[in-house]
Amino acid sequence: MTALTTAKTPAAPRPAALRFGTARAVLRLHRAALYAWTALVTAAAALTLWAYAALAGPAVAAYRRLQACDYTCAFDESAYLAFKDVSRYAHYTVTFLPLLVAAWAGAVLTARDMENGTAQLAWTQSVSPARWLAAKLAVPALLVTAGSTLLVLLHHLMWDAGRGGNGLPWHDLMVFQANGPTTVALALFALAAGALTGLLLRRSLASLAVTTAATGALWWALNGYRGWFWPPVTRTTSLEQGPWYGGLATGRGVLDSAGARLPLPRCTSAWDPARACAGTFERLHVTGYYSDVQPASHYWLLQLTATGAALALTGLTALAAFRLLKRRTEGTGAVTTEAAG
Hints:
The chain has eleven helices and four strands, in the order ααααααααβββααβα. The chain is an alpha+beta fold. It has a four-stranded antiparallel sheet. The chain is flat and about 80 Å long. The relative contact order is 0.12.
């Protein structure tokens, strides 16, 4: 009697197993980048926590003492300056570190795989081009979002603790960026833009340069025009009170006796504008000042508008990357051999 042995065909891997297997492969392949990002986030978090826990309190106490004596007495200047310097480093770190790392992850990781043929090899091993790109975007997106969110929360904690120490106001360029979700949204845009440029250029350094420039342009646009993301509030003051300098200003000028708006005269002095421009004001029949500003109550309106705009551009950029990859791989033999269940 002859025993016949039937070879069993291995069961096809489940889609979830393929998906998570691709993600694990990305993590294994780029372990060094993961360790570097973890170290950078840890260092930035330690810097921010140090400013919050050890420097903010003495700086606030020193500045309040100076205010109590009308800025005429001695105070702990070293404590005040220490918090000012370290918090400035924290502003820049939290603002730009996630953007640069995300730009690198999107551009270099994608372009490198296209450049050295790793992507094409993956496409022949049960990993479709779309799934390959999804893993390249999803894994760094998760890590960048988690790290940058942590840094933003710690930065806000530090800034809030040091506000009484003559810290920078909420609408300062660096503070506004580092204190809210706009930082996370911009980092995700940098990641998507990096993937798109990596697919377009297929050169790591060139892709990184273009991605950094594109992210910088969006950062400049969002921060440069944030004052117009929401209708401003108009504040009017008398000549004796001087111009109103609270909040984020979008426009300032003077009012004549008929209530018409006029630009600020060139003679205006920051210290005593009414006296410096007395003759000009009298000739123009100026009765007061107006200021179009975004008050502190508009903070989240501005933040969420900027975040929404960045996320919308992120989605469009990611969609463009997937469409580009599909167009380039259709009909070129880059078709996977995924087994049917």
